[in-house]
């Protein structure tokens, strides 16, 4: 079995870059990109085979995701991607409104030229992804825009909470959104960024309220399709392992 350290994984947000971090980030991205369907069984054996690591490492990554409430670990039945009910979805959106409004206000206050350049590049990358038809990357960047706002806010508890509600919102959209629309529009992200750059917290808060209204307004009770086959979802990892074995 190939070691995950032999691969060239996508950069992870953690500076430690451990095997746990790499597995965690791959699964987290699959959730943000809505490639993992709510309710998908996350077999430790299958994931261990895909990533080339022990079940202990897989178990630790799944436990981290369960703390963020995007994975449910059921006693004696294993882990599944969380599938929020309609009532839970409403509660998650209510919580997201609270945290997003606090985040955007602090982001205006604490924005630096460096952080503004970084998030401006992210907004452009989001638009470029949608323009070239890379919907998965566009959705992930759309979610990461909101995480970057929390970084700009310079408040670690808010960042941790934001990370959880953004990923939970992605699950809700995968279940209930009409069609395959982008999670957030480039134009709205661009306008939010302009309000931050202008140093206008009242305008930024008002625009964030409208932005969240638009996201929630796209939802209904129809179930979106996403793959429940772990080998399909993580096909890039499987291909990298095959390349490592071939060499």
From TrEMBL:
Keyword Transcription regulation assigned: yes
UniProt keyword terms in alphabetical order: DNA-binding, Transcription, Transcription regulation
Family annotation (CDD domains): WHTH_GntR
Protein name: GntR family transcriptional regulator
Domain HTH gntR-type, first and last residues per copy: 17-84
Matching InterPro entries: GntR_C (IPR011711), TF_FadR/GntR_C (IPR008920), Tscrpt_reg_HTH_GntR (IPR000524), WH-like_DNA-bd_sf (IPR036388), WH_DNA-bd_sf (IPR036390)
Taxonomic path: Bacteria, Pseudomonadati, Pseudomonadota, Gammaproteobacteria, Aeromonadales
PANTHER family linked to this entry: HTH-TYPE TRANSCRIPTIONAL REPRESSOR NANR, TRANSCRIPTIONAL REGULATOR, GNTR FAMILY
Keyword check for Transcription: yes
One Pfam family it belongs to: FCD
GO molecular function per UniProt: DNA binding; DNA-binding transcription factor activity
Family annotation (Gene3D superfamilies): GntR ligand-binding domain-like, Winged helix-like DNA-binding domain superfamily/Winged helix DNA-binding domain
């Amino acid at each position: 079995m190939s070691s995950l350290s032999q691969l060239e994984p996508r950069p992870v947000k953690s500076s430690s870059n451990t095997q746990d971090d790499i597995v965690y980030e791959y699964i987290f991205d699959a959730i943000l990109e809505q490639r993992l369907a709510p309710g998908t069984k996350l077999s430790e054996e299958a994931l261990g085979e895909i990533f080339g690591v022990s079940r202990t490492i897989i178990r630790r990554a799944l436990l981290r995701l369960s703390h963020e409430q995007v994975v449910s670990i059921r006693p004696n039945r294993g882990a599944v991607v969380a599938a929020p009910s309609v009532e839970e979805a409403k509660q998650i959106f209510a919580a997201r409104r609270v945290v997003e409004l606090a985040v955007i206000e602090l982001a205006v206050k604490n924005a630096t030229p460096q952080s503004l350049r970084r998030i401006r590049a992210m907004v452009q990358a989001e638009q470029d992804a949608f323009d070239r038809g890379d919907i998965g990357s566009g959705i992930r960047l759309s979610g990461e825009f909101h995480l970057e706002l929390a970084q700009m806010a310079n408040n670690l508890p808010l960042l941790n909470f934001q990370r959880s509600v953004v990923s939970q919102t992605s699950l809700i959209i995968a279940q209930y959104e009409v069609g395959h629309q982008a999670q957030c529009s480039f134009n709205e992200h661009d306008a939010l960024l302009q309000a931050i750059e202008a140093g206008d917290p009242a305008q930024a808060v008002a625009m964030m309220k409208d932005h969240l209204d638009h996201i929630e307004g796209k939802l209904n009770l129809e179930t979106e399709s996403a793959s429940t086959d772990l080998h399909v979802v993580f096909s890039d990892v499987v291909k990298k392992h095959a390349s490592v074995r071939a060499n």
